[in-house]
Design brief:
alpha/beta, Rossmann fold, 12 helices, 10 strands, 16% strand, disordered N terminus
Length: 278
Amino acid sequence: MTINKILLILCLGCFSGHAVEINIRDKESHMPVKQKTIGMIGGVSWESTTLYYQLLNQSVREHLGGLNSAKILLYSLNYEPIVNLERQGKWEDVGQELAHAAQVLESGGADFIILCCNTLHKMTPSIEGAVQVPFLHIADPAGNVLVNHHIQKIGLLGTQFTMEDGFYHERLGDKFGLTVVVPSEEDRLLLDSIIYDELCQGKVLARSKQNLLQIIQNLREQGVGAILLGCTELGMLVGEEDIGIPVYDTTVLHANEAAKQSMKVQYKTISDSALLGS
């Protein structure tokens, strides 16, 4: 294993492989929790991976209380060579890297896998074909919430790959019946640059926030009912308080759903309201 591919075993509490019965009780149901181990493919970028780690643990603590935290295995990729492969169109090689990471997590005891990057979900089939444990797709929690909130037309923001390659539109359209609108070509190029050249490198610039707000305004003029932040770093730059229409952050929704999946209780599932703070 190279220094750029580090398997960090971050199971806070006693690591014991696959899901086991532990002596924790759900605060609302008073029923024993069967806590599962979340396998995270991260580092893509590490800026958003740190947010995932925080959100997962906050959700578990909020629901279980005390010193409880998420059971996590993290496989942290080096993002630079991944992005280089993307830009060369070598997506099969990207898929092989992701498949290997998923296999390592499964062999380490992960009960299900999440990928902490919207763009790389283009290679979902490579991950699902490599492991036996479930893979939680990042678009699905967002799709479910949008349907529940009766929002049908959304503005999608993300990398050029996410906005242009169809894999994201098709999942949201085919599975959830959503109409997806993306920015103009000029705005897509600008947004892609903000993501890769700034946010993924930890740079949060005021001028880029203003540019992003203008892109969102352009989408509002096309009649979208909400904005979907389809890049795990975009929440670093804007929130609903900046925009004036509903904003759905795929990072937050994905992490909360993963936390929920990890805390399945016997005979009862945890409510969305307990995890989303609503």
